[in-house]
């Protein structure tokens, strides 16, 4: 796939893909005879994973570290597992906190529903 198709399918901009390649988040792309980047379809799975790491709040330095460890192969499995475990634990803590907040909001909304008072029209 050419870089434009990867951008369309992954949701990452062409500039981001070039930047990710420059800093080591993406492997260097193969080049066609005209020098244009050409990617294997497997890159989409990797970009999806990178997007998830970004969305959970992993800083770019740790994403680059993870990519470097991944490129080094099986000897780095424990280091990769440990890095992911750290962020997984932080995410689980955030989810628990958000779940508690949701419960509080649900209780508050339910209390308004039981007061019998008419709900205000948000357009007024």
Automatic annotation (TrEMBL):
The keyword Cell inner membrane does not apply. The lineage of its organism: Bacteria, Pseudomonadati, Pseudomonadota, Alphaproteobacteria, Rhodospirillales. Keywords: DNA-binding. Gene3D superfamilies: 1.10.1660.10. Residues 1-59 form the HTH merR-type domain. This is MerR family transcriptional regulator. CDD domains: HTH_YyaN. SMART domains: HTH_MERR (SM00422). It holds the Pfam family MerR. The keyword DNA-binding applies. It comes from Thalassospira indica. InterPro entries: DNA-bd_dom_put_sf (IPR009061), MerR-type_HTH_dom (IPR000551), MerR_fam (IPR047057).
């Amino acid at each position: 796939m050419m870089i434009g198709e990867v951008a369309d399918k992954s949701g990452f901009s062409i500039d981001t893909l070039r930047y990710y390649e420059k800093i080591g988040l993406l492997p260097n792309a193969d080049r066609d005879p005209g020098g244009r980047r050409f990617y294997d379809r497997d890159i989409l799975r990797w970009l999806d994973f990178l997007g998830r790491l970004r969305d959970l709040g992993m800083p770019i330095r740790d994403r680059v570290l993870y990519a470097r460890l991944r490129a080094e192969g099986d000897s780095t499995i424990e280091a990769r597992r440990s890095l992911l475990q750290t962020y997984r634990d932080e995410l689980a803590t955030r989810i628990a906190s958000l779940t508690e907040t949701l419960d509080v909001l649900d209780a508050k909304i339910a209390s308004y529903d039981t007061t019998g008072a008419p709900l205000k029209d948000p357009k007024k």
